[in-house]
What does this fold into?
Amino acid sequence: MSDGSIILTFIPLRDISQNEWALLNKTLQIMANYGALGAKTSQGCGVIEIKENNLPYNDENPKKSELKGKGDKVKSPNLANFFFYKFHIKFKDEISNLIDKKVFWTHTSDHYGFRDYWGNWKKLWNDYHLLPIAFHIRDGIRHLEGNKNERHTIFGIGGNYAHGSKVFVSHGYKIDENDEKTVEIRIWGYDTKDKIKNDIKDQLENCLKEKLFSKRENNEFLESCSLIEEKTGKEILEGLK
It folds into this structure.
């Protein structure tokens, strides 16, 4: 839809139990509250808000005893090993003005063939309240791990030995229609050492100052970067029956 809304329709191909509906609803809630839905979630895409849910049993918790089935399973990430962070990034000027001033980083100074598409930045912010800074965030937190091999294990690698990232980031999105200076971002992941998780919490503001702006003097436009919510997958599971 033109406003960025989508409608998801689930068509059962067999009888679906009450607990299976509850599991589906809980999964969607976790995505909406802490993670994202769809492709390229490690690169900023997929943050959603559930406007309406008319699925069966959408107010029920799944039975904890039935969360894990029997038999051979794909070695998928375990929710118990996830972490979820939300940060608020506040600027000293309205974000539309900062886009007009071209203060954000877009390309290296020696990349003469690069074209700035500030009109796209403006449209994303004006029409969808989205600030496309996931790349900046991701580039910053990648360098919190100094060991190259470990960095590739955590954040993924391309080429012949390609594998996906265990850490995901969102773009910035507006959380208050009356606040033109603040965006919220999400960082979440799984099977990640405590050191990296703590470094992200403690050093994200420095990472933004290093990677977010086109010039070092533009750091003055960043007022604060605050962790406003922290959750573990284990805590989410403990909240189930």
Q: What stands out?
A: The beta strands are 82-91, 130-131, 167-169, 172-173, 182-190, 222-232. The chain has a mean pLDDT of 89.
